User: Fold these one by one.
Assistant:
Number 1:
Amino acid sequence: MATTSELDRVTMVVLRYMRGPVLVLIIVYAIGITGMALIPGQDAEGNLEYMSLFHAFYFFTYTATTTGFGEIPNGFTDPQRLWAIFCLYLGVVSWLYAIGSIIRLAQNPHFLLALSEHQFAHSVKRIDQPFFIICGFGDTGSLLARGLSDHWLGAVVLDTDPERIKALVLRDYRIKMPALCADPGVPKHLVDAGVKLSHCKAVVILTVDEEVNLRIAVMARFMNPDIPILCRSTSERHSEHLTTLGNVTVINPFEIFAQLLSMAITAPRLHNLNSCLVGNRKARLGRPLDVPTGHWILCGYGRMGHWLHKYFVRNHIRPVIIDPDVGEVAGAAQVIHGHANLNTLKEAGIAHAAGVVAGTDNDHDNLSVLMCVRALRPNAFTILRQNTHENQIAFDAAQAGLILQSSLTTARRILKHLISPQIQIVIDYLREQGEDVTQQVVERLRSAIGDNKPHLWRINLCKAEAFAVAEYIQKNERLTLGELIRNPHDLEKSLSCIAFAIERDGKRIMVPGNDEPLRYCDEILMCGTEHSETMLNATMNNAYTLHYLVTGSDAPRGYLFKWLANA
Amino acid sequence: MNLERVVFGFVIILALTFNFAFVMGDIDNAQHHNVWILTIAILINLIATGLKLGDRSQVGAVLLASSLVADVLLITARIIWIVTQTDTDIGPSAASMANIVSLCGGALVASIVSVTILVGETLISRR
C-alpha cells in the first residue's frame, strides 16, 4: 500500500465528507436552473420571453442562499413564481444540509486530531534552528522548556495529557514551541516531532512511566541511529536496557538530588558555584552555604532516601534514619521505625544534631518535620525536599537552610547537558580537585563578572562560527585565550568572562589560563555576562578587531592603505 | 590618532560636502549649480571608493556599497548634463536641471549613509 502524507489524509477526509452534500447541491442547482429556463416568462411589454441560462443561474444563486434580490430582470409570471417557491425551499434545504455537514466535520474529534497532527508536523518542519524533542510535559518538562526558552533554544513537546498541552499553549516562551497531544511511543508521532530532521539535536524523555520511557527511547533510536537521547529512569533494570541502546544519558532524578545534597554538605563552594550557574536566584556567587558535618538525621527512606543514604555514607556521614517501613540499613548509625515527629526526632538525638533532611515524598510531612526541628533544635541545618511545584509559596515561606525540588534539579541538569555536556564534566572535575581549586575558579569568575548573573555558552573556533579567529590561526599565528577575550574598548582589561574548558581532539583542558594557546576548531565552554558573549562574537568574526586585540594597533584597511603600509 | 583614519575620514567627508555644495540652490535653475563642483564631487567620490576597496569587515562592505551608489548617481547626472547642456544659452533647460539635481540629491543620501556609518563605528569602538 502506498503511504499517504498527513496533508493527503486531511484533504481526503474533507473530500469524502463533502461528497454527498456537493452532489446534492449540484443536482438541486441543475433542476432549479433548467426549470427556470424552460418556464415561459414575459418582458416589460408583456411579450413572451424565456429566461436565459445565465439569468436562471443568477436567480437561483441568490434565492438558494436566501439573499432574495427580487424578480430580475422582469417581473415574473405566475408559473415562474410557482417554480420560484419550489426553488427557494429546495435550495435552502440543500444548503442547510451542506453547511451542517461541514460543521459536523469540524466537530469530529478524529478530523480535529488529523488536522492538529498535520499543523504540528508542518510547524516542526519549518523550524530553522537547532531544537530538542521533549516527551512528557510534567513538572520537569515544563521547567525544562522554560529554561530552554531563557537560553533562546527551541523545543518540540509531545504529551498524552491534553490538559498539559493546553497549558503549554498559554505560556509566554521566547521561542515558539510546537506541541502535540499524542503518544510519543508511536513512531509516527516521533517523526512528526522531527526526530529525523538534521536540526533536531536530542530527544529528552521525561514521562513518569518507566516502560513508556524505554519504548520511546527504543523507537527514537530506530528512527535516528545517531541522535543523543536523555531518558529519565529510576529503575536499575530499565537503566541497563537504556544504556545498551547507545548514546543514551540516563537521568535519575533521585541520584541527581542526592548528588546535589551531598555536594551541599561536602563541597559547599562547588554547590554554590553550581547553583549560580544553573540560575538559582537565591544563590550569590562566592557565598556558599555553611553546612555542618556531624550528626545527621534522615527522615524518609524510600527510593530517594535510599540514594541520599548512599551518598551520605560515601561522604563518611552515618545518618540516623527515621521511616515507618524500613528494614536493616548498612552504614546507618541507627534506624528508627515510625513517622518523623517530636518523639522519634528526640529518640534520633535531635538535641545534638548538626542537620536534618526532611526527605519524604509528602510535602506536608516535610513541612511538619521542619516545624518540629524548629521547636527542638532551632540552629540545626535543615534540608527540605519539595515534591510538587504547586507548593512553592509555602516552601518559600518555610525558610529552610536548603530546599531541593526534584523536578527542578532534574530539569536544570538536563538543561546544562543540552547547552553543553562539558558543563557537568567541569563540575565533576572541580569535585575531584577539591574545594581549594573551586575557590580559585570562583574568585576568577567573580573578578570577571562581579555581581552579575553568570551565563554559560559554548564557542567553536571553526570557520562557520569564528571566521576571523579560524583564519588567523590557520595562518600559523599564535593566539592565546587571553588575547581573544581582551576588551576592545580597553586593552588593559578582559571581557567579563572566563573559559571553563577547552575540548580539543577528544581531550579536555580544564579551567585554562589566559596564556593557553588556541587551535583551529577548539570547542570552548565560556562563562560570563550575556554582554560579553555579544562582544566576543563580534571579535571572533572581525579580523580587524582581532588584529587590534593581539597587536594593540589597527591594521591597514583596504588595498591602497595596505600597499602603502607594506611599501 | 591614526593617520590612515584621518585620510580616510577626510576623503569621505569631503565627498559629502562637495556633493552638498552642488545640490544647494533652486532645483531647476542652471545658474545655481556649477558643473565644476559636480565634476570634482565625482572625482572625490571615486577616490573614496578606491580607499574602501579591500576592507573585509561587514562595515567595510556597507561603506563600499553606499559609495558605489553615489558614484552611479553622480556619473549619471554628469552624463545628462553633457547631453542637455546645449538646451539653452546658460546650460540645461529647467526640466533637465531638475533631473540632474535630484539625482545628485540621491547621491547625497548615499554619502550621508557613508559618513553616518563611519562616525558610528568610531563611536562604538571608543578607543
Number 2:
Amino acid sequence: MALPTLVTEHWYDLRDLSNLSREILEGADKILPHGIVYVLAALIGFVASFLIFVLPSQLIVGVYGERKLIGRMQSRYGPNRVGPFGLLQPIADAIKLMQKEALTPKGADRAVMYLAPIIFVAPAVLLFAVIPFGPKMILADINPALLYFLAVSSLPVLAAFMAGWSANNKYSLFGAMRIVAMSISYEVPLVLALLGVVLFTGTTSLQEMVLWQKHFDIWIVFLQPLALAIYFIAVSAELNRTPTDIAEAESEIVAGYLTEYSGMKWGLFYGMDIGYALAASAFAATVFLGGWSMFGLDKWVPPWMIIIGKTHLFYFVFIWTRGTLPRLRIDQLMAFAWKFMLPVALLNLVLVATERMLWVEQELDDSYLYIFAVVNIWAALGAIWAWSRFLGYRPERNPVRARLVNEAGGYVPVPEAAKGGK
Amino acid sequence: MYEFGHIGILVIIALVFPLGAVVTSWALRFVRIRPNPASNSVMEDTYECGLRTEGPSLVQFNFRFYYIALLFVLFDVEIIFLFPWALVFDKIGWQGYVEGLGFIGILCLGILYAWRKRALEWR
C-alpha cells in the first residue's frame, strides 16, 4: 500500500515531525560522511520518540498517574507533597533510588545479579523502534515488525529468571519459577490472538496494519473483539500486573524475584515494568485501535498525538484493572490460561479464517466487513459466556458481596429496647 | 537492511542507558552523600522474614512446571507453523483453508489429551 500524502512537507509542519528530522539530516549530509548521518538518523529517532512519548508517558502517566489514580480508587490521596499536585514525585523517586545503597546478599551470583536489570531494560527500549507514530514517523519500518515485537517482548522473562536465580533466596527462586511458568502459559493464547490479526490483514508490518485499518475505515477491535480481550488479559499476565502478579505477590512470596534487589538495580526493574506496559499499550493501540489513524481526523490532529492518546487510554484500563481486581491464585491463573484462553483463542482463529476465506474467495465487497464485525462481537460474547458455563462458572443469583443497607431492604430503625431503655 | 541497522544502533543505546544508571549509582558511593557502613554479616544476609536461612537456597521445585514447559514447546512450535499459513492465506484457496483447519484440529486434540491426562491441573 502506498503511503497517503497527509500533510505538507514543510519542516515547521508539526503534524509530521519526520519533516523536521529530514531537514536536519539533509543538512548534515552535505557536511558529514554518510555513515555518521546514518547513525545520526537512528539517534534522532531515538531521542524524538523518547522525548515526545516514552519519557513523559513513563514519568507522568506511569509513575505519577498510576499512583494517583489507584489512590483515588482506594479512597486516599496518592502523591501530593512534592511539587504542585505531587507532580515531581517521579523525579524525587529517581533521585532517591539513584543515591541509595545497592546491597548484594552473601552467596549471590554477583555478575548475574548486576546483569539482570541491564538485560531487563534493553528490550524495553528496543520495543519502541517498530511502533509507527505517523505516516513516516517510525524508527525502523521493518516488515516482520509483529514477530520482532513478540520476540523482543519475551526477553525480559529471561532477565527476571536471572534476577530470581542469582539472588540466592528462596522467595526469589519461587518468583522466578512462577514468572517463567506464567509467561510461557500466556504466550500461547497471546500469539494465537495476534495470529488472527495477521491472517485478516495479511501482513506482519505494523505500519501496513495501520494503513489497512485506515483504508477500510474500521479498527480491528471491532472485527476481532475476542482477540483484544485475549491480548489484554495475556499481556497483563506477562507484564506481571496486579490481578495476575503472582510472581511478586507480596502476601505469598515477599517480592518475588525482586526480593533481594535494592537501589538503582530495583529502580530499573520498576521503571521498565512501566516501560513494558507502555510498549504493550502502544502495540495494542497500533494493532487493534487503528494506530495513528482516526477516521480522517489524522489530517488535522497530529497523528503522533492520536496514538499517544490511544496508548494512554489503553494504559488507563491497565491501571483500572489493577485498582479494582483482587489477585488470583497460581492454580487459577494456570487453569485460566490453558482451559479458557487457549480454546477461545483457537475458536477466534477459526472464525477469522473462515470469514477471511469467504471474503477472498467469494469476492465480497467491503461492506461485508461491517457484517463480520457484528457477527464477531456476538460470537465473542457468546464464546465467553458458553465456555465459562462449560467450565462450571455459574453467575450468582444472590450476591455474596456486602450490600448497602438500602439494597438489603431499607433502613431498619434500632428498637427502643436495644438502645438500653430510656 | 537499512532499517535493521537502526535497530542495531538502538541496541547499543539500550545497553548504555541502564549501564549508565547502575554505574552512576555505584559512583555515588565516592561522593559521600550517604553513609557507607562497612558491610557486615547482617547487611549481607539473605532476606528471610527476620530468620536465618535454613539449608541451600536453590531448592527443588514442583515438577508441575515441567508439564507447563513441555506444553508450551508443543504449542509454540505449532504456532510458528501457522504464521506462514496466515501470511499466504489469500492465495491458497479453500483447500489450504481446510488443511489449516486440520492442523488446528490436531492442536485441539493435543490440548484435549493434556486435559484428559490432568496435565493442566495444578495439584
